[in-house]
Amino acid sequence: MTVSYEKFVPTYTAMHIPFWEGLKTHHLVLQRCDSCTKFRFTPKEICPYCHGREWTWTPVSGKGTVYTFSVVHRAPMPAYQADVPYVIAHVEIPEGPRIMSNLVHVDPEAITIGMPVQVLFEDVTPELTLFKWEPAR
């Protein structure tokens, strides 16, 4: 059975598959360098900190704080029209990286820099799970 999803869908290489597979099981997993132990996002073959070439896909907390955000008032295509205004946020997670996605379940006027958030998983099709941020409970 194929389910239609009208919004943008990610394209990715084989290196990114563990990230997307983690989302399907409702886990946020990132590459962690085996040499310097720093997390990185987006996935890379070489650690940007120590240039190590070995890594382990490791679950992260799924918590963070809003580093910056933007409120979108004009839909990029008709499938997004019902969502406007919507928020795109860069979230800094305790493990280090900043990760961008939508921030949902909050009035855009109530968002502040430093606001605590947590990850939310959205199963949009049987094959695709996306992650978003929502205010921390």
Task: Please tell me about this protein's structure.
- This protein has 137 residues and is mainly β.
- It has one domain.
- It is built from 1 helix and 8 strands, in the order αββββββββ.
- The strands form 2 sheets. Strands 6-5-4-7-8 form a 5-stranded antiparallel sheet, covered by helices on one side. A 3-stranded antiparallel sheet has the order 2-1-3.
Task: Describe the secondary-structure layout.
Layout lengths: L16 H8 L4 E5 L5 E2 L14 E5 L3 E10 L13 E7 L5 E6 L12 E10 L2 E8 L2
Antiparallel strand pairs: 1-2, 1-3, 4-5, 4-7, 5-6, 7-8
Quick structural summary:
The protein has 137 residues and is mainly beta. It has one helix at 17-24, and strands at 29-33, 39-40, 55-59, 63-72, 86-92, 98-103, 116-125, 128-135.
pLDDT < 50 runs, ≥5 residues: none
Q: Assign the structural class, choosing from mainly alpha, mainly beta, alpha/beta, alpha+beta, or little secondary structure.
A: mainly beta
Number of strands: 8
Q: What is the total domain count?
A: 1
Which strand-content bin applies to the residues?
35-45%
Mean pLDDT: 95
Q: Quaternary status of these chains?
A: single chain
Indicate the overall shape.
globular
N to C succession of SSEs: HEEEEEEEE
- For the report, how would you describe the main beta sheet? 5 strands, antiparallel
Instruction: Provide a count of the helices.
Output: 1
Give the spatial strand order of the biggest sheet.
Answer: 6-5-4-7-8
